[in-house]
Design a protein that fits this description.
Length: 344
């Protein structure tokens, strides 16, 4: 190579760094914008639907909660409510069972419910379908049931967020028989436990009905009507009233009550249910253990402050006892006249 030949060194090409940064920044901005639009769209779609949000939340709760301690057959019967009115906090994974006490007036359901509510993990919310608008049709009934079982129904019996069972008492003449198809469908879809509570001795029930009606009109307890009492003194005052039974309609009335109970049990035979009689619960407290087992509850000794009102023989409680005795002679109801369970 000659001396005058010079090396030619080519300068490196400039890296287009700045344009690349600009493109990257633009892509990031676009990504953030797209995510924002998507989130906004989801919120818009779900914002007006509490049910949809609740459904999603319940699914999430079910996924998060460990159900390994629950038998396979029990899974449809346990629930993890996600109330909209409060937070279950640390009890969010405590399974809850739904129940309804199906009964008739003056059959011991009030007393039985106080026993249930003495359990620390049970909330039975009383006779919630006493108001006609709540049972006007199946839709109205379902709306009430949804609130109760989602723990959004508040009453004096409502417990804390750690409920293990929630329910109420429901009289057969409060839409149960009229709308039984829709109610049975709801019970089966939602795993509701039906607890039937009836009174075997329909004569004693009738006396209680008439005495309660008398108390409503006359109010012998200082001008106050009381369906249930908590002192012996009050019970003695109310027990003084001796009704006369209508002998001409007595048999038909007793048969009608029997028929109503049988129809109810027949309608709900496809549901998970148990049938109890007041006399059995009074005379055998192991029945209360059966109820707790039925609901999958931890066993507790159940108590009530209510005092029995009518006790002793029916001859002491019916003003026209001899006439009633004649009417019922030779019928399936005659034995009721001589039974004494020391009932309330």
């Amino acid at each position: 190579m000659e001396a005058n030949d010079s090396l030619v060194i080519k300068a490196p090409k400039k890296s287009p760094l700045l344009p690349r940064l600009v493109v990257l920044a633009f892509a990031m901005v676009c990504g953030v914008y797209i995510c924002f639009i998507c989130l906004k769209q989801i919120n818009t779609n779900n914002g007006g639907s509490t049910t949809s949000n609740k459904f999603i939340d319940v699914k999430v709760v079910h996924q998060l909660c460990n159900s390994s301690g629950i038998e396979q057959w029990e899974i449809p019967l346990v629930h993890y409510p996600n109330p909209v009115t409060f937070s279950r906090e640390e009890c969010v994974c405590n399974p809850v069972r739904y129940f309804a006490i199906l009964s008739m007036q003056r059959s011991g359901s009030g007393w039985f419910e106080t026993l249930m509510n003495s359990h620390i993990n049970v909330s039975s919310n009383g006779e919630i379908f006493g108001k006609k608008d709540r049972r006007a049709n199946v839709t109205a009934i379902v709306n009430v049931l949804d609130r109760v079982y989602n723990l959004d129904w508040f009453s004096s019996a409502s417990k804390n967020e750690c409920n293990a069972a929630v329910g109420f008492k429901w009289m057969l003449n409060q839409g149960v028989l009229e709308h039984h198809e829709g109610i049975v469908d709801y019970f089966n879809r939602n795993g509701v436990h039906a607890i039937f509570l009836f009174r075997r001795n329909l004569i004693r029930r009738l006396i209680s009905v008439l005495a309660n009606s008398y108390d409503k009109s006359k109010k012998p307890l200082n001008g106050t009507h009381k369906s249930h009492v908590h002192s012996v003194v009050e019970a003695k005052v109310l027990a003084k009233y001796k009704p006369s039974l209508n002998a001409s309609t007595l048999l038909a009335e007793l048969k009608s009550v029997d028929s109503r109970a049988a129809r109810a049990i027949g309608y709900f035979k496809s549901t998970r249910h148990i049938v109890l009689y007041y006399e059995d619960v009074v005379g055998n407290r192991t029945k209360l253990k059966e109820v707790q087992d039925f609901l999958g509850l931890p066993y507790r000794e159940l108590t009530s402050r209510q005092i029995k009102i009518h006790s002793g023989t029916l001859a002491e409680q019916i003003a026209n006892f001899e006439e009633v005795q004649t009417v019922l002679k030779g019928t399936p109801y005659e034995s009721f006249l001589h039974q004494d369970y020391g009932e309330m």
